Q: What sequence folds into this?
């Protein structure tokens, strides 16, 4: 299916040799072939740029021989159809991304910009007229603030960031290259309920949210500010839609959180951990570096570095799977003997 | 309790005979009785229109004899109190809806409309002045765009649609009669994390969201656009609040998803399937037509058409329930013998 | 870490004696010490106000001797370091909140206000110019409506409320001192799917949402209006981010719902109940006063007052924990004998 040019602007055609240069890939094949679009590898047609990042060599069904060019690791390049120009790199999917930017550009919001910008909004920033920029907020070079987004007073946003439509950011310092998708809520008051003489009361929250460089935050995800200290999201951590990050959580680098992940107050997650969809972590729990948490797990105690846990309450995944299988066996046996 | 006229405008009184005509129902009883409101069947008072759609005949507690009129299937009409005019139809609840429209009208947003509309916004469409309409977006007859909603460039929206307050729609083609409630996020980038030379990177997303006729999408629900192809929601599928539909999901017709349903990437769901609250489905899994998934289930493999599954990991519901009961029995027994 | 004055305005320094007076606390120590900030008790430095609300007396690591003053219950006051002025009250954390308001003020949105207000918006209310106020909506004294928030026609909002950025409220009556955080959706149509001659149809919803005094509603949380009657949230109930409250739910006073709580249609929850994160309740279920529901529980039947339940399906928590432990033991044993 061709890319819909109502949403993505065509910048091509671009010769494969030029894409090889842009993505710093080694070209094996015809560099004069023209690229006009992108497509999944199995269904790529004439003019399409694709990638193959499988661990085994591509088979006949994996790469359509009509494709114009395919990013691939050097060791698998020879397995591509002869008709497809190979672009060899150690990171085929990533390199494809770099090249694709020269072929297609998302049309973005195409907002008419405000005629005058506050002094602390960089001249190259794009701010939708309907966005709210609070007093003293600073917006860096080339950052885009979407329609009806709300940036609170004093918020600092770095360079090359994208703040989506209807998103809100307050009490927060945001690095460079950060993407905050539509409807995300950054810096709201955390949930601190305490008793008082009249009943339940909210504990006021005096902290901030710190979001480091190249973090991505999904649509309608919420990240609360710290109670006194900070909630921190480390470099290149990627967070899916509809996640909840409570106050004083500290997340390291390159962590991935799938949709509906729920991180309770004061949890720490070390670098490179991965949470499946709907995984939840109870407050003050520590998750070691590179730990993996299965979808739908409920974690109530520390997970050591590198381990994979699942279930509610979460336990090492093999143990959980053995329990599930054993229980199923008891029932099957009981059924038969009856 | 009478309907609050600050939120719903009274259009009545309307004679029962007129409502019978509008809803194509067979009237048994007094057609001159005037209807002024709607109410639950058990508590309906004078002037109230109600419906009974139970499988057994209504008992004395089911229908208040003060009610003005009641939609009911023909076989149960005689069981209504004599004082209540019966309106017989095969779909009592649905027919009640048709008639109720002649009695009450939600006041809606009552936005002051923009003085001039872009050429591709139909003259009968209502667009709140604070809504953002991107370049080239088209809005059909009688469609209402709520306050502070954001419609991205090139988006196509059909006739008789409602886009709620603060909702955002981008990279999407929307059919007729579609309702997208407040804060829903249609067409955001899907969650595609990949490795690169510097750490985690987002895979760019070049696809679209296709929403077919009469689909309803709940508040703050997120539907991501496809990576290269489309995310598709089939005709009359109804999605509750706070659901997540990832990239490249394909959902058939008349599917119902309760709140917090989470559908991972490239899942396919056939016509008429039903998901309970918080049901989750792992990526690439196929759900057969008419399958039912219990609340809180976590589905990691294919569910055949027409089956009902539950639990985490999901299994046929009877098996899951037997396991739950058996385990409970072991503990009770152990407790007694101790 | 000092509080960031880009987000919180310093109102101090304030002498401890003055804070004792404001919070109606008994001062034990030097009333002339000046307070300039707030901090966690263990890390509080010179000028910082803190609180200790533990059940046992504070140990040496609990309270930093550099802190200026500490709210504490009278029985634990003597265990504070001599260098820290004690402020004795029965509710240390709550009293700290009262005093902290004299030391620091959140900068809020600092919106430029509309020049003229509709007649039913109180002169002391602050309404962001980009907020939408529907026809006939009333806004009480000192209530703040954030940027790009949407208040539907006829909505009544009391005194001293805060409506966050990009939040929307419709078909609702809101009491005094209510906080609705950014992106919350109050009063959307509930999820009522019914069959009709053409397939699935939405049942129209004619009810309201009633939110009583001092309720707090988290970011991106959704509360649907009733079908014919009302959805009701009782006084001082506190709801975290990303919760779902369906139509016709009735929640009592001082109830706490942690993040991702999901309350299905027509559920009733009595006063003082507490739901952990991601707890879900099936429709029409009744939860007794003071009941506690563990995180990730799925409740399918009534929980008596005062009991604590967990698991899916939920059962008394001790039973659930015994089942979990017993199952784990079977597997460990089986493993060893193999």
A:
């Amino acid at each position: 299916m061709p890319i819909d040019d109502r949403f993505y602007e065509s910048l091509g055609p671009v010769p494969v040799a030029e894409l090889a240069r842009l993505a710093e890939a080694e070209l094996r094949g015809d560099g004069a072939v023209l690229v006009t679009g992108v497509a999944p590898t199995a269904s790529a047609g004439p003019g399409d740029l694709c990638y193959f990042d499988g661990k085994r060599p591509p088979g006949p069904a994996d790469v359509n021989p009509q494709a114009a060019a395919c990013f691939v690791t050097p060791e698998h390049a020879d397995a591509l159809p002869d008709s497809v120009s190979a672009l060899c790199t150690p990171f085929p999917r990533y390199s494809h991304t770099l090249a694709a930017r020269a072929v297609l550009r998302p049309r973005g919001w195409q907002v008419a910009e405000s005629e005058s910008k506050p002094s602390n909004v960089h001249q190259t920033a794009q701010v939708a007229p309907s966005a709210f920029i609070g007093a003293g907020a600073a917006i860096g070079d080339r950052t885009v603030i979407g329609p009806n987004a709300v940036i609170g007073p004093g918020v600092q946003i770095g360079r090359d960031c994208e703040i989506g439509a209807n998103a809100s950011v307050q009490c927060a310092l945001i690095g460079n290259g950060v993407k905050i998708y539509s409807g995300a809520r950054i810096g709201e008051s955390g949930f601190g309920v305490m008793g008082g003489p009249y009943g339940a009361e909210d504990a006021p929250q005096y902290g901030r949210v710190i979001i480091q460089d190249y973090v991505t935050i999904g649509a309608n995800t919420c990240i609360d500010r710290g109670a006194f200290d900070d909630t921190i999201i480390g470099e290149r951590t990627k967070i899916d839609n509809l996640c909840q990050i409570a106050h004083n959580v500290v997340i390291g680098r390159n962590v991935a959180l799938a949709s509906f992940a729920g991180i309770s107050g004061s949890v720490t997650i070390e670098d490179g951990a991965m949470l499946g969809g709907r995984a939840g972590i109870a407050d003050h729990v520590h998750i070691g570096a590179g730990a993996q948490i299965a979808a739908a797990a409920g974690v109530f105690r520390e997970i050591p570095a590198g381990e994979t846990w699942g279930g509610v309450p979460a336990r090492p995944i093999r143990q959980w799977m053995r329990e599930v299988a054993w229980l199923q066996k008891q029932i099957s046996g009981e059924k038969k003997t009856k």
Notes: Chain B touches chain C through 67 residues (CB under 8 Å). The first helix of chain B runs from residue 16 to 22. Chain B has two domains: 8-106, 126-315. DSSP finds three helices and 39 strands in chain B.
